[in-house]
Amino acid sequence: MDWGTDLWDQYDHIDKHTQSGHDLVDKYIKFVKERTEIEQSYAKQLRSLSKKYAKRGSKEEQDCKFSNHASLQEILNELNDYAGQRELIAENMMTGICVELTKYLQELKQERKTHLSDAKKAQQVLESSFKQLESIKKRYAKEWAESEKATQQAEKTESDVNATRLDVDKAKQHAHARTHTAEECRNDYAAQLQKYNKEQNFYYYSEIPQIYNKMQDMDERRIRSLAEGYCQFSDIEKKVLPIITKCLEGISSAGRKINEKQDSLLFIEQHKSGFERPADVEFEDYTQGIRPATSESSLNPPKVRAKLWPFSKKHKPPAAEDFSHLPPEQQKKRLQAKIDDITKELAKTQDQSEALEKMKGVYEQNPQMGDPSSLEPQISETAQNIGRLRGELAKYETWLSEAVGGEESSNAINNNTQHGVGAADQFPSIYSEFDDEFEDVETPVGQCTALYTFEGNSEGTVSITEGEMLSIMEDDKGDGWMRVLRASGDEGYIPSSYVKLAP
What we know:
This protein is mainly α and about 500 residues long. The chain contains twelve helices and five strands. It has helices at about 5, 10-55, 55-65, 65-160, 165-255, 260-270, 295-300, 300-310, 330-365, 375-405, 405-420, 425-440; strands at about 445-450, 470-475, 480-485, 490-495, 500. It has a five-stranded antiparallel beta sheet, with no helix packed on it. β2 and β3 (about 480-485) form a beta hairpin. α2 runs parallel beside α5 and α9 runs antiparallel to α10. It starts with a helix and ends with a strand.
């Protein structure tokens, strides 16, 4: 069964049905657009939410050392990645469904317009042929009536005894002419009728069925494309479900990582003062003739209270550079942290100095690349910074030695020496050995495993495959990218959310 055979006389219904199909496609496109707007708005709100509760300032960074605080930051990061997947769903729906169906709908509308126009033209041709047939038929009927009338008049004239021979001949000639004209009209009518029947047969059995069958094929293609669009609505989201599942698993994993005992120990380490508990207050016997004015405890009671409450905000001493205003344990921690910071800054400055020296050597060998003398101010400034940092390092190590005692200070200094930094007079030999053994070698800061395949098509990126082990050369700085090194030697940036850090 097809439209051309069974619906040959249903032009109006075919017109309405095809228009209704196109309206449905347009309706579905609008529906998907609104869905993408919802997804984009949802993703935007999720990103704003994660940004709102993300760590800000040094205090929150300090709190992030606790597992329950750190887990919240992990949850916020996973939520941010989840928002990215919602944005990806919206983008794919817009390009894969809305854009494609909109383009296809325009083609369908033009095709439908062409088919309906062809059907109208065919109908107009047949109607014009029918009007011509009716005109010839009317003329034939008129001429035949005139011929009959002329023949009757000739017979009447011939039977009239008073009519002359001339009148009779004239009447017969007129009747003969009318009869001849009527015969010609009859032949024209027969020919036109045959032509019209042929055209009508072609119209109903060939032309219209072909047009309607083409419209049927067009409508079925529309239905098939719409069905594919319906499937895409689900498939697009299914494609990102593995990553969404990973994000949700990451949130659950962040909850499982929390260690309440470890957080309590860390809190103790951060805030224990190292002071001994206050001794009992001695009894002062006034019956033995001891005057209150001579009592040391009554003369200077604030001193006892100062020892009882060393962290009183009302009597907080000014901050000292050696942190001597802090309790012993906190002083040692702050001094060690300061030493670590200076050590990192010193290593960074020395790397900068080495780079400037190498650049100067390149300029000396290739003057066209630059003027070596232009680097002298930077080299001089870097050398001054190195000297300043070495002096500060020695100063803080001395204070740490005084705080922890000779043995602990010795261990701390030895530990620093093993990391490439010692006292001021030890720097030349240590760094020369370091340069000889590890020149131009960058040490990975960690390991990770690729969770998904990433195609690094942009400049500076590198392609990775799912399950691949990678070395982390530079951590994520907050922009969502990290620099990694593959086993093949390829190095570049990848999205941080595409890998899992090794334990």
